[in-house]
Write a structure and sequence with these properties.
It is a single chain. The strands form two sheets. The protein has a four-stranded antiparallel beta sheet, with no helix packed on it. Strand 3 (45-52) and strand 4 (55-60) form a beta hairpin. It is 0% helix and 39% strand. It contains no helices and eight strands. By secondary structure, it is mostly beta strands.
């Protein structure tokens, strides 16, 4: 069966339904920076820009309510080699945005590197 609705309202019919004690991802993606490819199955990401070595920005399709969202991520594979790396949201406060999430793929030695497998999930409130 199919359920088609435009709005789900609370019991009183005056507002949206409130979810309690649960949170869903508002964005997730897999991105190959080596081939500059956003993989299928991504959610709420319109595109990814390759900004520099090991640095890229995901454009958020439906804006977040503020730039204080939480991100977790993983980065791996560099020219076919397994390396200890991690993916993080950029730390510069000026990079935070409700419509874009900049990332850096850090190598354990402290430099950034392009990776074939970058995955991230974003949690927060949509605008």
């Amino acid at each position: 069966s199919v359920l088609n609705v435009d709005t789900i309202a609370d019991k009183a019919g005056t507002g949206p339904v409130a979810f309690t004690k649960q949170e869903a991802a508002k964005m997730y993606f897999r991105y190959n920076q080596v081939t500059d490819t956003l993989e299928t199955g991504s959610l709420n990401v319109s595109s990814v820009s390759d900004d520099n070595t090991g640095r890229f920005t995901a454009s958020i399709t439906s804006n977040m309510s503020d730039a204080l969202y939480a991100i977790t991520g993983f980065s791996g594979e560099h020219a076919g080699q397994n390396e200890a790396t991690w993916l993080s949201k950029m730390f510069n406060q000026n990079d935070y945005s409700t419509s874009a999430a900049p990332y850096a793929s850090w190598y354990y030695a402290g430099d950034t590197r392009d990776k074939e497998r970058n995955s991230s999930v974003l949690f927060g409130d949509l605008a």
